[in-house]
Amino acid sequence: MTTNDPNQTPDGDRDPTEPIEVQRYGPIPPRETRSPSWQAAPAWTSRQAHVTTAPPPRRGITAMPIIAIAVVAGIVSGALSAVVVSSMIRQPAVPTGQVTATPDADNVSDVRIDESSAVIEAVGEVTPAVVTIQSEGGGLLGGASGTGSGFIYAADGWIVTNRHVVQDASELVVVLNDGRQFPGQVYGLDTLTDLAIVKIDATELPTAPIGSSGNLEPGQVAIAIGNPLGYENTVTTGVVSGLGRQIRASDAAQTSSEQLNNLIQTDAAINPGNSGGPLVNSAGQVIGVNTAVSQNAQGLGFAIPIDVAKPIMQQALDGQELVRPWIGVYYVPIDPALAATEDLGVDYGALIGTADGSGQAVFPGSPAEAAGLQSGDIIVSVDGEQVSADADLATLILPHAPGDTITLRVLRDSSAREVDVTLGELPSDG
Predict the structure, then answer these.
(1) Is 50 a known active-site residue?
(2) Which domain holds residue 269?
(3) Active site residue: 275, 366, 381, 388, which one?
(4) Which segment, 29-43, 109-123, 409-423, is predicted with the most confidence on average?
(5) List 194, 307, 377, 392, catalytic entry
(6) CA 259 – CA 321 distance, rounded (Å)
(7) Candidates 149, 164, 190, 366; catalytic one
(8) What is the CATH number of the domain that holds 312?
(9) How many CB atoms within 10 Å of residue 399?
(10) 273: left (phi over 0), alpha (psi -120 to 50) or beta
């Protein structure tokens, strides 16, 4: 049988004052009366919950040493935590331009970018070399006076700007970034693009780092620096929106226009006064010369690739006349649609001929005529480099100078041949 009486033995023969069980080490001491406010201590023991009998007392360890050990452990733990926090505080600052946290849905607000970002540093590299060009008497394609921009590329006073900023001007004043003013002289006008070289009599000037436009990709950071509407050192940022663009640019009065090819398109804001200023990448290198903005749309600005400007920049430094190489043909860029329509056999290259099929395709007395090129020929490469949408015929010959000989691969009547052409000088009305 079972019973609920803790002092009852099966045989019922016992002293009612004697505990039911006597421990090996003596009788169980009486329990102390606990006050109603007592609260159980945290469960520090690892003893199994089902154990109901008191274990034998452990020798050599009492409650006070246990408490002392716990206190020491807490102090050591706190000290280690302080060391970790101190070490974190002493960590080196995040490198310039780096993000201190990876953003996600929970910590977007924790992202911090150092103020000395790549754009700020790039602007700091180039801005000292940016100048304001004030023209009187015919600059800016028909205006009696106007203001444009430019940048110094050689320390002894050589400046790149737009042709329409200085063309026909009777007087030029170049204002440096530090406020100094110099009279400017037009060294030469580019016969191929909207570029010009201006010279001032000064030395030890700050220069803009010159980069390359050969490997640009849409989406790259683009920074336009100039003096739009007279606001000096204005900086706008965006991206390279497109490459190889072709536009017809005109002056504000719509009295004259010209076709510009192989341009960089950007959404960095370009406004009147930005003309001739640098387009810069995030490394602080000039990748283009700002030249035009669409008046009928927002976010459509254009710049001449710096690789197009480099030949005339060097010609000026060498004391040479600004000239461009010339083959002497009209041509139509080939794309898959034209190739299919005309059954050309290739979907790239330059088809010698006019767009409407009228007029002469090869100029009389030109290098092309001397080399035996004919209407209907397809030029597929220049010195082994394929003619394509990104590298058209005019672009591939730009790095050369008049007098250089290049080798063209030409398709005629389904057969290929190599043709050597000695480049001429592009006429001023070419």
Answers:
(1) no
(2) 221-317
(3) 275
(4) 409-423
(5) 194
(6) 23
(7) 164
(8) 2.40.10.10
(9) 13
(10) left
